[in-house]
Amino acid sequence: MDEMKLRGFVTPEDFSGSDTEKLQSAIDTAKQKDICKVIIKCDLKTEKTIVLPPLMHIVLDGAAISASGDFPIFANSNYYADKFHHSYSFIEDMFFIEGKGAINGNIDFYNAYRVVIQNIEINGSLGFEFTTEVRLENLKINGDTAINIKRGSNNFIIEHLSVTAKDIGILLDTKETETDYVIGKEAGIDEIIIKDCEIAAPTAIAMEADSDGAIFNTVIDNIKTDGTGLTVSKRQGELSPELYRDITATNFISKKAEPIKLYSKTKHCYFS
Amino acid sequence: MTDYISPNTAELIGRDDSETIQNAVEKACREGLRKIVIPRYNMRADSTEWRIARCILLPSDFTVILDNCYMVQETGAFENIFANSYAFDETKRDIKYEQKNISIIGVGNVVLDGGKHNRLREKTTRKFGLPTIWLNDIMFWLNVNGLRIENINIQHQRYWAINHVFTRNVTLKNIHFYAIPHVNNMDGIDLRVGCNNFTIENITGRTGDDVVALTSLWGYSEKKSIIAGKDPDIHDVKMRNIKGDPDRCYCVRLLNHDGNKIYNIDIDTIMDTSDYVSKHRINCAFGMGSPVYYKVRPMAEGELYNIKVKNISTRAGDAVFFNYALRDAEISNIHTFGDNKNMFSPGMKDNGNSDCVFDNVKLKHIYYGATQKEIIGGKELSDDAIHGTVFDFSRAKGEIEIEDVNVDTVNTVFKVGSEATVKVHGLKINKAVTEREIEAGGKLIIEGEEKHNG
Fold it and tell me: Looking at CA atoms only, how far is residue B409 from chain A in angstroms?
């Protein structure tokens, strides 16, 4: 009888070696044995990115995980995939991160589906590219740009966050930083819901579309901030209104006189 | 010492997974723990799936934690995965037998799967020796007070995934669906007769029929399930973030007939996530009423009221349907896009008799942004090739107030029937073939000035 399977989870303490080796081994074993759950009880410091396979549940049980350098602490396998995996066919499904503890570093997802991150403290940023069906709930995030929703990402529910950011709380940005695509996916960002968040940042939410990637079908409601609530196209400047369409932004509680600043025309947007 | 029972306990192993889990439920009750945890690993079968050949019946004051587990309805079985223990007991059809405080909470990545379809459908329910179709639900709840279901992925449901009848005080949260519509009626969440005080939040994914349907109708099974002491109305339902693709059906549907009422419905955000590029459009984002499904008489005035909906975005053929009657309603911030055709329409046209009486109805912040494929492709369309109607009140009666209307390219903005009065403040039209068609007797008043056909 496999005791680990009966126990229902794997921990880094089941392994020896450096913190990185222990944590990656725990995750790889959890996947290989189809246990799919790792509980982290001790503080760890990683020397490189911990790769998350699909169908993985990470629970912090009073632990803090830190990165020793400038790399994501967690990323899904597709984040480092070669160009042959840039296809919807290789989308990776089901990631769940939660618990009592802190992640002191960044988490990045690329070409992923069904990602849930809840009830945790993150001292870093969350990044999503070509990723869909994401729920972020009850998070405390401190970062330069706390949440970076990049091109090709859609279907997000972001609620009940407490964010402190040096620059932007939540950035929706379709700009292509290097040649990139996922076959079967559009470049735009859409179907985003952001509600009931407190964001301490010069800009709570920023939208930056690009010529081949619109930002549309987005509902933002009840955002409390000490900075500007929403900026649209501040970096890009004037673009076609089709690139910022059907955006709803309501109930900003901001100390600024202009809680919403538009640097481009928009289409069919409801701001109040 | 744990505060729960696990089915992975040697003494609880039964002849199959269902019996094993049911044994765990019973032991949890005997020992006063009233909680089981179903883990991913199934010790009995040495596998990572739980195959449910018989419904797990849950008593009052009971919690089931699903810990990263995968549960599937067994091939050939006609059984729910979960139901309350009195759900099928015909001697308990009274409010005094109401069961209470049942929770099913997912931890991590939980999947409940309909598995291989057993060919039991609405057309064959109770025929040819087959049982009631309600046994195909993933979860079935009858006469329950206090129910909580959270953080679960449901896929390939055989019928309605979660079905509630005469059930109240319910929280449904963070439920994701994935259904490839290979049979009819693969609804997500259904509230049938007698349901009230629901909070439904963060419902996402793809169903094979309506995502959320509130239908107070007297079907055969509903009549057999009448609970003495409970009324059949559906009321006090709050929904937030219904973000899904209902295949060819409705994101949210309200439907009542035969004297049953639906009231006090508050919805914040309905998003139609059907993919524009590759998929047919859905039928409707938010639909009220229908000229079919009644046994004695259709819905009458005063039976659908106090309906508040804000933030709808859709490319449905018809964004909002209305039928028969609507009172004290406000629908605001509606956006259509892609290949949407009509925004506000009377319902199913080919069954007739779908007039609608409006009483104190307000529509605000309307954005008709549908763009026909040909226009996107750069084709110049002739007027008769441009489709769509923003406000089809040709079968409306009573007064409707509309504020802040923004219209892109459309065939007709207003159709006003002979018994309707439509008052509009704030109207911007980019291009319309016909701005208004007003029948004799009907009134269209824009910025205080009565308009005539043109």
Answer: 13
